[in-house]
Design a protein that fits this description.
Blueprint lengths: L1 H11 L11 E2 L1 E2 L22 E7 L2 E10 L2 E8 L10 E7 L12 E7 L2 E8 L6 E4 L6 E6 L12 E8 L8 E10 L4 E5 L16 E4 L10 H18 L1
Parallel strand pairs: 1-14, 2-4
Antiparallel strand pairs: 3-4, 4-5, 5-11, 6-7, 6-12, 7-8, 8-9, 10-11, 12-13, 12-14
Amino acid sequence: MISAIVLMSLLFGVPIAFAETDPILITKSAGLDKIVFDGKWTTSLEWKPTSWNELKYNQTMIHLRTAHQGDFIYVMIDAVDDVTISNDDRTVVCFDGKNNKGILADYDDYCFVASPNSDAVTYQGTMNTEQFKIIPNPDGFIGIGAQSDRNDRYSPISHVGYEFRIPIELFGRSDNYGFFVSVYDSDVQKFYSWPDQLNQDFHKISPSNWGNIVSPDKTMPEFSLPTIILLVSLGGIVFFYKK
């Protein structure tokens, strides 16, 4: 049933509405390696083959697009109501690699922050009360924010958008991660997050309160060709050893 819902979202452009306790669903897509990372819809079809979730906060709407392909998770956040673009605007996307919902952020918890006109930053959990520390951005990581244009699918009014390409190997391959996303609109000095009761800076939020992002069709984790060869080889060794 869940896979059918995701397929409907992809084929017919139907957003998935979630209760607060429901997970975000992520799907596998082809062609994501063709995305132009400029913080906006470069074309009106660029992010179409991805899962779509509408995150609502009273009168504020944020569109979340997610998918995975190969060694990366792809995330787009379209903050259609943040129409006053500022360098202080930012968004954060967080993953709990083991989804152990720790009280303090630990070493498998990572957060990625992007802002318009600023370099993206990667944070890792510290297992102490400071929660996170800045680490070097991993190879292949991209995080960028920018002003939308006429190609945006959700609003003709210029607003802030964000795009991420996040290496899966950083926190390990799984079909179920802890997940948190937040947008900060500096003009009104407010955080808008999912789960939506966590509307504050991510440093202040325990991963135990994050939600979940899952691959309902089990297409994640994907394995690279060398990994597949290794697994097959190990399987062959075990088989012949038992014989």
